[in-house]
Amino acid sequence: MSPDPSPDPSPDPSPAASPAASTADPGVDPGVDAGALTEALARAEALCSDRGVRLTDQRRQVLEIVCRAGRPLGAYDILDAMRAQVKRPAPTLVYRALDFLLEQGLIHRLETLHAFIGCTHPDHPHASEFLICTDCGGVRELEDDQVQCSLHQAAAQSGFSPKRRVVEVIGTCAACARKAQSDGPA
Ligand SMILES: [Zn+2]
Ligand SMILES: [Zn+2]
């Protein structure tokens, strides 16, 4: 396997670590910052044109919604967000856009949450592991070759032919664990 030539320019954009977003509407998840969003969309645009596939307006809108949230969004959340932009978005169009984005590796599906999240490094095909925090809802995507290799070997030893591998770990992220510790028992 060739090493990834491009170092990830955005190491761990933790939504919890973002500075106070005074411009955000109260009660609205500020999500990722505008710069990161613009970058993600430009990267998607470039990848699609390299691959000769079309990032249509609809696909781009769906991608923007998923990436802007910076947290997992269910299909209904995405449809709701589309309604703010398009008068009557057809659910099938949104699902088809999601399928396209999944196929291109621009987003991932989280099976345990029935939700979607933007990929932080869509430039190469990869198997991911996800750490899902039940306290803040944050999701961290990992790309650990050892985990995938172990799974592959274990499956092969059982004579099992995997079609898809889903590795999702549910728990508490470091920031939430620290917070719980500093808050102490009520
Ligand atoms: Zn990914
Ligand atoms: Zn957390």
Secondary-structure map:
Layout: H1 34-51, H2 57-69, H3 75-83, H4 91-103, E1 107-110, E2 115-118, E3 129-133, E4 139-142, H5 145-157, E5 167-171, H6 174-183
Parallel strand pairs: 3-5
Antiparallel strand pairs: 1-2, 3-4
Helix pairs in contact: 1-2, 2-4
Bound molecules: zinc ion (2 copies).
One zinc ion binds at residues 133, 135-136, 138, 173, 175-176.
Write a structural description.
With 186 residues, the protein is an alpha+beta fold. The protein has two domains: 30-121, Winged helix-like DNA-binding domain superfamily/Winged helix DNA-binding domain (Arc Repressor Mutant, subunit A, Orthogonal Bundle); 126-186, Ferric-uptake regulator, C-terminal dimerisarion domain (Dna Ligase, domain 1, 2-Layer Sandwich), CATH 3.30.1490. It is built from six helices and five strands, in the order ααααββββαβα. A three-stranded mixed β-sheet has the order 4-3-5, with no helix packed on it. The chain has a two-stranded antiparallel sheet with strand order 1-2. Strand 1 and strand 2 form a beta hairpin. Helix 1 runs antiparallel to helix 2 (57-69) and helix 2 (57-69) packs across helix 4 (91-103). It is globular and about 45 Å long. It starts with 33 loop residues before the first helix and ends with a helix. Residues 1-28 have low confidence and may be disordered. Bound molecules: zinc ion (2 copies).
